[in-house]
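seq:
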Amino acid sequence: MLISVEMPDSADAAHAYLRDGALPLGGGTHLMAKLDDTAGTDVRLVSLRRAGLRGIDAEDGTVTLGAATTLADVEDDPRLPYLSPCVRSIAAPPVRNLATVAGNLFVPQPYGDLAAALLALDAELDVLGANGARREPLERIAAEGLPQGDLVTRIRFAAPAPDTFRFHKAARRRLNSGSIVTVAARITVEDGVVADVRLAVGGLTHRLVRATGAERALLGEPLTPEAVARAAEADAFEPVGDAYASAWYRARVYPVHLRRALLGA
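struct:
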């Protein structure tokens, strides 16, 4: 049962409430729908709306997103055109007007498409924890989770060079649907071969994953359908089934959508 909602005016004050057992409330698009699952349990929330955690900086090749920045803010920012297709694939405009960047990092799969893009961009998180502020790779938090009581304040990443970022999402509907397979990639081709690549996959398994086997298979190879097909076989993923797609179907179509993400066809 929901018993209180606090609305602090600073990140430090919000963190203090979290350390005392409250749950963070960003846009509430996922959390509020789940409150019925906590019947019989007292729930205290701390809203981040006034905690000074909203905003976008994009200076000198580094992008910083405040944790409470909405998905609509990211979608509409002309400095982030490479993220707009990703954000537009998430839910509907009223949801994007509320949902926050940090919230998207922690929703369960097959959601969290922006998180997949940020993982491909090697994002780091500024975190307030028991021992003060620290910086954590998103990849580690995606794999291990965030310790109870810690607060993400900002997300940082290097802006990708032109034409090096790719994003593709397969879903049952073109818009407003959970993912069947999401592929995000930062890839550089030099002298006809892949010189650098970082691949993130969402929707396929129970959490976001790096396709490290595919990365190794692509390095030094020409970016061809044959090379991508070999790369799709290089990771031992364990697909999951849900209301959107069966595990068998996800495994079957992953190579198709990896090719579409990297080659556009």
